[in-house]
Design brief:
By secondary structure, the chain is an alpha/beta fold. The chain contains 15 helices and 21 strands. Strands 8, 9, 10, 11, 12, 15, 16, 17 and 19 form a nine-stranded mixed β-sheet that branches. The chain has a four-stranded mixed β-sheet with strand order 3-2-5-4, covered by helices on one side. A hairpin with an 8-residue loop joins strand 4 and strand 5. Bound molecules: ligand BES and zinc ion (ZN) (2 copies). The site of one zinc ion has 4 residues, from loops.
Length: about 525
């Protein structure tokens, strides 16, 4: 890579008002990293999902994964394998070391048929959940990678309401398990063997499920990539560029608006958060027209804080994780990409106010009073409660566009991690239909959400002495008071709020994830869009 003189940022590069100039978003300093990040040679991690008839189970292939329950039942069924191999599997299934126990793997080298047979324990048949299947698939992918193989086969075990449900989750988990974010690692690390293809044993009726799995996995992996990128690469401008590029490829309608447009609209809450940062904000709009309605059935709004320093109420520990404070917007983008590729018959509008919450002479301050897009004046309680401000204006703009229902998804409150932990999102809603569909999706997606209440008295904490509403409600029930703030802006429009703070990354492997960005929310939103 050619070395480049790093330009010194002179004060003159800032406008007289202190407002950042767009030039700052394109400084040479970033060019090398951006080149690295979008080099055409960069291979996206996409797993190819193919299908072949179950009768080919005994064919000579590099590796066949054999799912085994504790009761000895296996998928694909042992009758499809040669006698000797089947007998050996029965033996192991009865033995204590393997016994079909959840999480156990056992590698065999059969004399005939597949060159390797990987027994994968699933535990008790009745205990099999989407999450357990995902974990088993991650185990398989890890082992296949270690063996240096590029492809493996597997058959869906019985789960849910049909073979296509299980096939979907088999393909999806494999697609998610092969995700890596390694673009800034050494060439050696980047070239580690990776699985490129999963061949699913099954009949043609599984094709649609596999097609859907490939699309959802790719969309979710795109979201994970966005979450993984640090803000020195993924500024609001770069976020908008990447999203617009991908959205155009799948046929979404895209609009990207700049700071001047945001201000002309009167979205002063968004501008208040954005104006302390050297990185210019963007307002990204995606539209999917799958039905012929004149109004979007749903307006999705994602929190897109590319980095959250806390502003003047500067964060203490954990600030490095705040490159993921755009996890909600990544989920929205992922879901929109999938909606377009799946050609879902629904009209959806998606909005992302993309900003950076930074500290600067021009940054907003606690006690500032700011007029929202919808009208009400807001007293700023704490500059670290920035997400709800960007969402409030985003929601109202989506409402003005005619969205019949609204949904926002965001890494909004640390309190949601205190209440529900790092694997369960909070749902708060004023609408029965959205509640039923979102909670109904939990079992189908394996993404967990739990409802919290919106009792009226929680709003009392948001009363302001000098403005119409205050942005923060103090320590008690922080997730709920944040939602009460947003509820005010949703007005009488049916609305649901998903607080996924802490779910955008995981520090421990679970479900289909290894350590790192999860893309949490994509599957729930896709499931919702499919059900509308
Ligand atoms: N982005 C944070 C919330 C967050 C915390 C996300 C941990 C992911 C992991 C949000 O902007 C924030 O700082 N919220 C404050 C609100 C408070 C000042 C009312 C919080 O939760 O402490
Ligand atoms: Zn914050
Ligand atoms: Zn935040």
């Amino acid at each position: 890579m050619a070395s480049r003189a790093h330009p010194v940022r002179r004060p003159a590069e800032l406008g007289s008002s202190g407002a950042p100039l767009s030039a700052l978003n394109n400084i040479d300093l970033l060019e090398e990293l951006l080149e690295l990040a979008s080099a055409p040679s960069r291979k996206e991690t996409v797993l190819k999902l193919t299908r072949r008839p179950p009768e080919t189970a005994a064919a000579e292939t590099p590796l066949l994964a054999l799912f085994c329950f504790a009761d000895g039942d296996c998928y694909p069924p042992l009758e499809l394998l040669d006698e000797g191999t089947a007998a050996r599997v029965r033996e192991l299934s009865a033995a204590d070391e393997f016994g079909g126990k959840a999480g156990r793997l056992e590698l065999l080298r059969p004399a005939a048929g597949p060159r390797r047979l990987l027994l994968v324990g699933l535990g008790e048949r009745d205990d099999l959940t989407v999450e357990r299947l995902h974990e088993a698939v991650v185990g398989i992918v890890g082992r296949v990678e270690k063996l240096g193989l590029k492809t493996f086969s597997a058959a869906p075990p019985p789960l849910g309401d049909g073979a296509d449900f299980a096939a979907h989750h088999l393909g999806l988990a494999a697609g998610l398990a092969t995700f890596r974010f390694d673009r800034y690692r050494s060439a050696e690390q980047r070239e580690r063997p990776r699985v490129e293809e999963l061949s699913v044993l099954g009949n043609p009726e599984l094709d649609a499920a596999l097609h859907r799995a490939a699309i959802v996995a790719r969309a979710q992996n795109f979201a994970r990539e966005l979450v993984s990128e640090p803000v020195n690469v993924l500024t609001p401008v770069e976020f908008a560029r990447r999203v617009a590029e991908r959205a155009a490829e799948v046929g979404l309608q895209v609009e990207v608006h700049d700071a001047a447009w945001i201000r002309r609209q009167g979205m002063e809450l968004i501008w208040a958060v954005a104006r302390g940062a050297a990185e210019e904000p963007r307002f990204v709009v995606l539209r999917h027209h799958g039905a012929d309605g004149d109004k979007p059935a749903l307006g999705l709004v994602g929190k897109g804080v590319m980095f959250d320093s806390g502003g003047y109420n500067l964060k203490g520990s954990g600030m490095e994780l705040m490159k993921g404070d755009m996890g909600g917007s990544a989920a929205v983008v992922g879901a929109m990409l999938a909606a377009a590729e799946l050609e879902l018959p629904v009209d959806v509008l998606a909005v992302v106010p993309a900003v950076v919450n930074a500290v600067d002479g021009n940054a907003y301050k606690p006690s500032d009073v700011i007029k929202s897009f919808a009208g009400p004046s807001v007293e700023i309680g704490n500059t670290d409660a920035e997400g709800r401000l960007t969402l409030a204006d985003g929601l109202c703009w989506a409402r003005e566009q005619g969205a019949e229902r609204l949904l926002d998804i965001c890494t909004l409150t640390g309190a949601s991690m205190v209440a529900l932990g790092v694997r369960v999102g909070a749902l708060l809603t004023n609408d029965e239909l959205l509640r039923d569909k979102l909670l109904g999706g939990v079992e189908r997606t394996g993404e967990l959400f739990w409802e919290l209440p919106l009792f009226e008295h929680y709003a009392e904490r948001l009363e302001s002495d000098i403005a119409e509403i205050k942005s923060t409600g103090g320590k008690p029930a922080g997730t709920i008071s944040a939602a009460k703030f947003l509820e005010r802006f949703a007005g009488d429009t049916p609305w649901a709020h998903l607080d996924i703070a802490g779910k955008e990354f995981t520090d421990k492997p679970y479900g289909p994830y290894r350590k790192g960005a999860t893309g949490f929310g994509v599957r729930t939103l896709v499931e919702l869009l499919e059900s509308l």
